[in-house]
Design a protein that fits this description.
Layout lengths: L1 H22 L1 H21 L5 E10 L20 H13 L2 H8 L2 H7 L4 H12 L3 E4 L13 E7 L2 H58 L25 H12 L4 H14 L6 E2 L6 E5 L3 H31 L1
Antiparallel strand pairs: 1-3, 1-4, 1-5, 2-3
Helix pairs in contact: 2-10, 3-7, 4-6, 4-7, 7-8, 7-9
Length: 324
């Protein structure tokens, strides 16, 4: 008997709920229509800014481009098509060049002007992260020279997107060249300083040995077959002060021809057009990406139904309290 009573009570509750929903169907419909109309309005407003996927294949340059680096490769890590490709990738993916270019974009400038300094930086990095740089085939290793990486990003305007891409690539290549030759100049200076310091240390040693030889009145070689004539032997004075004087003179007159030639090679490379990586902007691929308005409409209808039902239940719960 109790079970029948409980079942009947539940049926009455369900009936009441359905009656409440049915009585409020107009209000639910109004809420749904408002949200759908709002969504449609936003879609119309954004209709002009169609999104485009721009992609560009970037390959390692030919090996022949880097033959000219052979004379200077003794200074730093070997510069070739592999190292240049890796340096380009690292330079591009640090986002510095991208952010520099994005800051100059009129559309982004307008957005930045309305944000705080902290929010500006966050927004610029969010734009920079739109750019991806990875292989076309995901099962291939990222740095394999048997394939190439593809630079991809989405933008609302094709011409503007291509300009951003062009400027970012040009700035990246400028910085690749700059950092490469900064390294060469730095290691050249280290090598030059090392040679000069070695010669200065040698002159100091010879000067001391010359003083000993002079005090002992050893003007010429005293022991022709002496084992003490090694470069920094403590008995080097046995060579005689006149031979030592001549050695000091020759060191001071040293021209460092090897360093002069090395510096000339570096300067020649700086003035040479080098194709650090291989790409062709004319071959960039552009594909329109259409927003799925059907999904947007479905979401708004479901959201409208949920909000409408909640509104009916809440208003019906509050109404008896107001009457009291």
């Amino acid at each position: 008997m109790q079970k029948k009573s409980n079942t009947k009570s539940r049926e009455l509750e369900l009936y009441e709920l359905l009656k409440i929903l049915w009585d409020g169907k107009i209000k639910i419909l109004i809420v749904v229509l408002i949200l759908v109309a709002t969504s449609a309005g936003l879609d119309l407003r954004n209709e002009e800014s169609t999104s485009y996927r721009i992609s560009l294949d970037i390959k390692p340059s030919k090996r022949s481009e880097f033959i000219r680096f052979i004379p200077v490769n003794a200074l730093i890590e070997k510069t070739n098509e592999k190292t240049a490709y890796k340096r380009f990738e690292e330079e591009f993916l640090d986002y510095e060049e991208l952010i520099t270019v994005l800051k100059k974009n009129s559309h982004i400038k307008e957005e930045l002007s309305q944000k705080s300094e902290k929010d500006q930086e966050a927004m610029l990095y969010s734009y920079a992260r739109l750019f991806t740089y990875k292989p076309e085939e995901m099962d291939l290793p990222p740095h394999s020279l048997n394939n190439f990486n593809t630079l991809r990003f989405n933008w609302h305007d094709v011409d503007e997107g291509k300009k951003i891409l062009t400027d970012a690539l040009n700035l990246t290549l400028i910085n690749v060249k700059k950092t490469t030759f900064e390294e060469l100049d730095y290691f050249f200076k280290i090598r030059k300083d090392k040679n000069i310091n070695n010669d200065l240390a040698r002159i100091i040693f010879l000067t001391e040995q010359r003083m000993i030889a002079y005090e002992l009145n050893l003007d010429y070689l005293s022991e022709p077959k002496s084992r003490y004539f090694d470069t920094f032997s403590p008995r080097y004075y046995l060579r005689g002060y006149k031979a030592i004087d001549r050695e000091i003179e020759l060191i001071k007159q040293r021209k460092y021809i090897d360093l002069i030639n090395l510096k000339k090679n570096i300067n020649d490379l700086k003035n040479t057009e080098i194709k650090w990586v291989d790409y062709n902007l004319l071959l960039s691929n552009v594909r329109a990406i259409k927003s799925n308005k059907k999904n947007s409409l479905s979401i708004m209808i479901i959201l409208g139904l949920i909000i409408g039902v909640l509104y009916i239940f809440i208003s019906n719960a509050i109404l008896p309290l107001k009457k009291r």
